[in-house]
Automatic annotation (TrEMBL):
<dbReference type="InterPro" id="IPR007197">
    <property type="entry name" value="rSAM"/>
</dbReference>
<dbReference type="GO" id="GO:0003824">
    <property type="term" value="F:catalytic activity"/>
</dbReference>
<dbReference type="InterPro" id="IPR006158">
    <property type="entry name" value="Cobalamin-bd"/>
</dbReference>
<keyword id="KW-0479">Metal-binding</keyword>
<dbReference type="InterPro" id="IPR023404">
    <property type="entry name" value="rSAM_horseshoe"/>
</dbReference>
<dbReference type="Pfam" id="PF02310">
    <property type="entry name" value="B12-binding"/>
</dbReference>
<protein>
    <submittedName>
        <fullName>Uncharacterized protein</fullName>
    </submittedName>
</protein>
<keyword id="KW-0949">S-adenosyl-L-methionine</keyword>
<dbReference type="InterPro" id="IPR051198">
    <property type="entry name" value="BchE-like"/>
</dbReference>
<dbReference type="GO" id="GO:0046872">
    <property type="term" value="F:metal ion binding"/>
</dbReference>
<dbReference type="InterPro" id="IPR058240">
    <property type="entry name" value="rSAM_sf"/>
</dbReference>
<dbReference type="InterPro" id="IPR006638">
    <property type="entry name" value="Elp3/MiaA/NifB-like_rSAM"/>
</dbReference>
<dbReference type="GO" id="GO:0031419">
    <property type="term" value="F:cobalamin binding"/>
</dbReference>
<dbReference type="GO" id="GO:0051539">
    <property type="term" value="F:4 iron, 4 sulfur cluster binding"/>
</dbReference>
<keyword id="KW-0408">Iron</keyword>
<keyword id="KW-0411">Iron-sulfur</keyword>
<dbReference type="InterPro" id="IPR034466">
    <property type="entry name" value="Methyltransferase_Class_B"/>
</dbReference>
Amino acid sequence: MRVLLVVTSTSFPKADISPDIFPQGVAYVAGALKAAGHEIFGLNIGYARTRKNLPRILFDGLTRAISLYQPQMICLGGLSADYTFIHAAMSICRQFAPDIPIVLGGGLVTADRQYINEDLRPDFSIAGDAEFPVVDLAAALDKGSTMEAIAGLSYWKDGELILNPTARETKDMPPYARPSYDEVGIEAFFQATDHATCWNLASVYPRPRIFPISAGRSCPFRCTFCFHSNGGIYKQRPIPEVLQEVSYFHEKHKFNILVVYDELFSIKEQRIREFNDGVRRLGLDFRWTCAMRVSDINSDLLSDMKDAGCFTVAVGLESASDTVLTSMRKKITKAQIQTAIDASVEANLPLYGNFIFGDPAETEDTIRETTEFAIANCNKAMLSVGRIRPYPATPLFNHGIEKGIIQDKKSYYAKPPHYNLTAIPEDHLATLIDHAVQATIGQLSQCLGDHRIFLAVQPKGEFDDFKRSCFVSHQNCPYCGHGTERKINFHGDIQEIIAGRLDDVSVFIRTPRYFLCEICGRQAVYTLYRPNMELHSLEFPPGPLPLFQDMTAMLDPTT
């Protein structure tokens, strides 16, 4: 069977590129279908450089893919935030290829199965992990056999929605086929990755190639804001199996930054130490990062991880108020957060975490407490500040429904607004959050950089409507003086710059951006702008760009 996989664009319908993470689910589905002998094609418009209407690009790309590949099944999937993209893509499929069955999956379906099926009306949908059910579905469509036994499958029979039971969960990760990334746009992701949208992960290489590996799925904790589309039982993969896959994909995709996906990677210290030893034995040229709970962190473990190539650790912080942490059911304390940050400073392995304001227990005092904590620690850890969002099937979402704060599911999915779940008036809440953001950034020191800035221009890609361009600069850490370069994609048309329409560029080069020093591990900010800056435009063929020092040499070949 010929299958078309349509990858969601996270910014849709805006033409913004946010390549901070690559969707693994679609790669696992591609791998499962390929292993079963099916022919797989992919469409990924998420990295288009354009100022056109992105829905138009989706229409052009999807209709062209359907004409070119003649698929017998079209698969889409995503989270609740991807509803707008999925709705648009399904509408195009219905208009252009009404006879091709549409299969919908991902957290969007799993979290709100009945509503999403009745609202979007896909031919089929899959709740939970899709690797086995999608293969069973393809076989059933090929053979015309019944579908009652396919776990997690939803379908229509005589106008009635049939919801098959989901698969029984186990503690061990099922033997899924190896994911396949070639068909779903991994190389476009590599090319789109820069030091702005992915600053905390991309910092250690001038030309980052960030790659995900899954070491576990789901989480047994029940934080009020979190939903797990993989079920409620935490599943682990054996570390030797993970390391074997790391080696395979490093040879295949030449990544230099590995992101370990496993929310409880640190639940057993020995498991991380086994991974550390395995990475050292591999001896491959990459750095890596993972996520940990602050309650599992100690300086000795972090030192061992750093020795094995780890360069930063993501942690779930959410709040520095014990009142709010209790309300969130985080099962951590403010004191544990501080202990974890201090341990990371001792080990010189920086932590990265978010504070999210807006829990129902949030007050002006708790916001102030978290803001003061962030200000005091933002030079020790990479801390960002944002706003909580209630996701379907979470206690936070249910609270919003019960209190009448979320009144209309259709509006929630189609254009999710900010929902104020606190007793603080909205305008004042927004002001408090903005103050927290600005106060935290204001504590960070400013990098000093080379006065020469390069505007590197390359040919446009498949879905672009103008040439690709990025700014390449050299920045010096304000703490230790280490120099490193930063590549920042510019999403405008280079011809507009040449024509003198520089408003967008002027704002762009003056925008503060986060900086993580790969040597001392401290956070700073920088801008491209310098009072004496020299902007040099250079054109290059497709592929990896030369380094800053090589561009500098092009200005004066004798140097």
